[in-house]
Model the fold of this input.
Amino acid sequence: MSAFSFANPTAPVARAADDQAKGLRDLVRRRGGKPASQRTAPVQRETRAPRQRRAKVIAVTSGKGGVGKTNIAVNLATTLARAGKRVILLDADMGLANADVVCGLNLQYNLAHVVARRKNLADVLAEGPGGFRLAAGATGLARMADLPEQEHRRLLDSLQPLEDEADVILVDTGAGISPNVLSFTGAADQVIVVTTPEPTAITDAYATIKVVLRERAKTGEGTASGRVALLVNEAKSNSEARGVYERVAQVAARFLGATIEDAGFVPLDPAVTRAVRKRRPFVLGEPTASASVAIKRLAARLEEGVAASLPRDYGFFGRVARLTRLRRSKA
Done:
């Protein structure tokens, strides 16, 4: 069963319910009676409307900076949006946000203005290339990376409506294992850890995976298997990328008892450098480039199959708030 999925997990249940209902109708018909739904009832019971399906949340993170994490997130958001998904990209690298730069946007407002109560969330959401919406973080504001509890909670409360306005929320976290990063990765449905084939990047990616898995297990917000995937960026070949994945996966299986999903790789491609200089996603500027094909392949994997979903009593931002409270209470 694929961990990469945005298919409706309730579809098999719905089919089973339809088959059961048909069987009951046939049985009543054979006995000459009417189905209960067609009989006159003295009191009509009020039925509660089904809860609106919330967005699937993918956190894109990395052990260190400079591995192309934000570029991957922006191009993945663009690809999913062009495929017909309602996509919101949340730049959660609060103090060093730069997704707007990759998108070629010059924004007047960002999430810092929401925290300061100078703007509402609707005022800072910007149309990104390809049709997704961007909630931009702040740049050069160290305070945004470590907000006081009240302001952090206010920010999360303001973000909650996004869950009912999107099919997919992509969270571009900061690099490393800060408390802010761990709250987002701990609450996400899927975590993609980006690395390059460089030894230091691989080491930091494994360290990030280890901490993320342990935090998720500790807080009960997920299991070790099937929730974290490794994406190798700037690989010179398929064999190089495969070698990186297998090394990390084998160590994780041996020492963590965890299965790490293979998210594939994005090849080293001069089209990416050209796109960054033009401040335009490479999947739009050069859609047939090898890097663009790789992102489209990743997007397709994220849509296929039916993933097992953990029961959720509250939405993504509610889970982030819960994890943040737990971490601060233990500090």
About this structure: The beta strands are 56-62, 87-91, 125-127, 133-135, 168-175, 190-195, 228-235, 261-267. The chain has a mean pLDDT of 81. The two ends are 38 Å apart (CA to CA). The longest helix spans residues 199-219.
